[in-house]
Amino acid sequence: MSADDTKRPILGKRSGSFYHGIYEERRRFPRLIVNRRAEIRKAQGHVVNALVHDISPDGLQVRCDRDAAKILHPSGRFITPENASEVDVRLSVALQKGEMEVKARCRLVYLAVVPGSIAFGMKFIKFYGDSAKILKRFIEESMEPA
């Protein structure tokens, strides 16, 4: 990372909400607002704690502070297929039978500045263990009428 990259604000001149809106329009599945804590691990071993704002069968949005965002995407520039990194995400979800853990490999898709934090859209590319089944059950239970 160059000295210029550390001084450059995340997203530069254009608002990330512009690009965030584009990705919102392309969604295949509705998002379930969850606001659950998660641990995000980069391949280099860096670990970041973040908040999973929403989740769906194909991805999630996490929110974190600027320092954590610089660890996840050091350049702070728009995420493209060429510079999109992969991370491992771990979070607990509440099922009727108790808390269960979801672990998945994700690819960063976008970043946006939202009030009070930086949002990263992530696409699931691989689930570990029974995580896909656990996530599916969590979404089903969360959408059932009370």
| Poorly predicted parts | 1-9, 12-20
Main sheet: strand order: 1-2-3-6-5-4
Helix tally equals 4
Beta content comes to: 35-45%
The helicity comes to 10-25%
The helix/strand order is HHEEEHEEEH
Structural overview:
- By secondary structure, the chain is an alpha+beta fold.
- It has a single domain, classed as Thrombin, subunit H, CATH 2.40.10.
- The chain is built from four helices and six strands.
- It has a six-stranded antiparallel barrel with strand order 1-2-3-6-5-4.
- A hairpin with a 2-residue loop joins strand 4 (86-95) and strand 5.
- The chain is globular, with a radius of gyration of 15 Å.
- It starts with a helix and ends with a helix.
- Mean pLDDT is 85; it is low at 1-9 and 12-20.
